[in-house]
Structures are given as structure tokens and as C-alpha cells.
Amino acid sequence: MADYDYDVLVIGAGPGGYVAAIRAAQLGLKTACAESRETLGGTCLNVGCIPSKVLLNASELFHEAASGALARHGVKLGEVSLDLPAMLADKDEAVKGLTGGIEYLFKKNKVDWLKGHATFKDAHTVEVAGKTATAKNIVIATGSSVTPLPGVEIDNAKGVVVDSTGALSFAKVPEHLVVIGGGVIGLELGSVWGRLGAKVTVIEYLDQILPGMDGEVRKEAAKVFLKQGFDIKTGTKVTRCSSPSAAVRTPRSSGWKRSGSNSTSAARLRRTTSSRPRFPACGRWAT
Q1: What pLDDT digit, counting tens, does each position of 20-77 carry?
Q2: What is the rounded CA–CA span in Å between residue 201 and residue 94?
Q3: How far apart are CA 186 and CA 201, in angstroms?
């Protein structure tokens, strides 16, 4: 019988990976988890579901206070101002607490964290940070990455044309935010910055926002976002995006304007197109 370092080795410490690793260890299996991020939790905890929900909640509270919506409940406030650095710090603190909690659970359940990218050497062997580890069973839980959109180049460092990660950390509220993609993620962060004062334009290729959802849900959701002040352009294809002005160009057939090439400019542009499976360096052994 082959002698392995681990019974189970999980590649990826997102919600799928860390739960699998912890449960395997609880069932008595010697377990390791390879993760290249500095913190555990994957996209969801670090730059996805958790930070976006913190900002959604905080921005809703700000909007209620600043818009005077609380006055009808008898709560009258003076001048309301936004402290964006404090809001972003609160988001980071929430992320730190949850990712730290996963690390604690790894230690408690004796799951070894192999820090670095995992590369398959054969069906039972991976290399992580120059060291080799073997396992009887290997679970691939590497999540997904954003599908590239031709004509749109992401540069989160510049903070002009960004993906969902970059849109979590704008240094200031953009005057005009253009969101490419009318899915859940784009509408979610569009709501955040819209409540904080940005003009929001959503460009969706299909005939309605929220592709794949129930038709009635999509229709009613559109009413909610229009009420929030969103400018929603459906049936519209983005053919090119240029920085630093974040100008977006669409073909004349989009219906955005009656004739000529269509374009709009924004202080920030956020791409939220669909994701695709991520299999970095897995090779044929992952199939």
C-alpha cells in the first residue's frame, strides 16, 4: 500500500475547500489545505460576499440617514456626512475577523495549511512553495475567475477600470460609475456606490438584468433599481473601453442612441461579467 503524507489534500480554501478540509479532519482523516492567499476563506470571505454585504449594510444606513427617510419615524438628524475611510475600515475588520476564524478552525481541527500555489506532479502529488506533498485523495476547490471581456482591460491599481475586487475599495465615491453586466454582483455594488452619491449606469447585453433568474423577479428588481436612480441599458453590447477617462463604446445597433457610435464617460467603470472555473497548473491530472 502506498504511503501518503495525507489522507486528503484540498486545493483552495474558499467556502467549498475549507469546509471540506475541516470536515475531513473531524472524521479522523489526516488533512491539508493548499491556499495561495495570505488569508483563508477564498473570494467569498476576502473580496466577495462578505465585504460586499458589509458595504451594502453600511451604505443603506448612510442613505437612510442622509435622505431623511428616518424623519417619518420620528428620528430627526442634522447634517449627515460620509466618512468613507471608516466605512472601508469596518469592512476590512469584518473580513479579518471571519478569515481569522477559519484559521482558528484549521488549528483546532489539525488541518495543515500549505501556503502557496499547488501544482500537480502526478495524480497523488502536488508541489506547494517548492515542497512536495502526497495525498491518497486530492480535492480541487479552486473556485472561479472573471471571464475576460474583449476590449476591456482591468487595472485595479489605477482605480478607473476595475473588477469587483477593485470596486470594494475606491478611495472616494465616483461621480459616475458604469457597471458592465447586470448580474447580482454588478447590481449589488452599484447599489453601494449609488447610495453613497454616485450616478450609476448599468450596461447589460441581454434584454433584462439578472440573467438566469425568474422573469417576474427580474422585472420587479428592475423597478427597484430604477427607483434607486440607476440608468439601465439592456440589449447593449460593450465593444471597447478606454482609460483614463473610462469611456465606454457600444455599437449603433444597441438602441442607446438612434444613430452613430454610442459612448459614455464615467469616473469609474466596473466590469462584472460572468466567471469561469479556475484550474491553475492542474494539468491533465485534474481531469
Answers
A1: 999 999 999 999 999 999 999 999 999 999 999 999 999 999 999 999 999 889 999 9
A2: 29
A3: 10
| Residues constituting the chain | 287
Tell me the residue type at 244: P
Distance CA 117, CA 283 (A): 14
Please name the amino acid found at residue 159: G
Distance CA(184)–CA(125), nearest Å, equals: 38
Cα 211 to Cα 44, 124, 219, 222, distances in angstroms: 21, 39, 11, 12
Q: Which of 127, 135, 113, 130 is nearest to 32 (CA)?
A: 113
Distance CA 253, CA 236 (A): 8
- C-alpha distances (whole Å) from 241 to each of 17, 62, 166, 252 are 35, 32, 16, 15
Per-residue buried b or exposed e for 240-268, using 16+ beta carbons within 10 Å of the residue's own CB = ebbeeebebbbeeebebeeeeebebebbb
**Which cell numbers hold the place of 208?**
433584462
Reported pTM: 0.87
221-245 pLDDT, tens digit each? 999 999 999 999 999 988 877 665 5
For residue 87 the three cell numbers come to 466605512
Calculate the alpha carbon distances from 72 to 57, 65, 81, 197, 227 in Å. 20, 11, 20, 22, 19
* 263 beta partners: 249
